[in-house]
């Protein structure tokens, strides 16, 4: 925690904003005697992010044939103010080594052994907020189609007659 005295002045409110952007907990002390202090505090209050949110995940699609372990992923968002304590999952598979790069970006690694499919990102922030980004990541089996192998084929049709010939082709 950092206390900024004169935090409603020009220099103090800019310092407080910069420290908060870097993830510090900031307390502003000021006697509010200078003109413009109320405007500076209003500006500082608008910059404060009370709740974190996820705005993106990259890469969004990876082909299993081009995957080299470990694969670093980026979680973009806002309000990642805590330096530690982040946990992220694709569905319920934990991402490894979650590191806070900035208030707007986290890095992690994809779990080994992940199966082809589309996954929801679940993030628990350093202060316990639970965030979800549906359909954040897809692991593709066949690079030619751009969809997971299990989604390429429709339902299995019953066949009768000669082997390899369906009823629809007679």
Helical segment tally? 3
Number of strands: 11
- Give the distance, in angstroms, between the N- and C-terminal Cα atoms: 77 Å
The side-by-side strand order for the widest beta sheet comes to: 4-11-10-6-7
Alpha carbon gyration radius: 25 Å
CATH class of the largest domain: Mainly Beta
What oligomeric state best describes the polypeptide chains here? single chain
- Give the biggest sheet: 5 strands, mixed
User: So, the CATH homologous superfamily of the largest domain?
Assistant: Immunoglobulins
Structural class by SSE content: alpha+beta
Kindly state the percentage of residues in helix.
10-25%
Strand content range: 35-45%
Give a verbal description of the structure.
- The protein is of the alpha+beta class.
- The chain has 2 domains: 2-47, no CATH class; 53-150, Immunoglobulins (Immunoglobulin-like).
- Helix content is 16%, strand content 36%.
- It has helices at 10-21, 37-47, 149-152, and strands spanning 2-5, 26-29, 53-58, 61-63, 72-78, 87-90, 93-94, 96-102, 105-109, 117-124, 130-140.
- It has a 5-stranded mixed sheet with strand order 4-11-10-6-7. A 4-stranded antiparallel sheet has the order 3-5-9-8, with no helix packed on it. Strands 1-2 form a two-stranded parallel ribbon.
- Helix 1 runs parallel beside helix 2.
- The protein starts with a strand and ends in an 18-residue tail after the last helix.
- Residues 148-170 have low confidence and may be disordered.
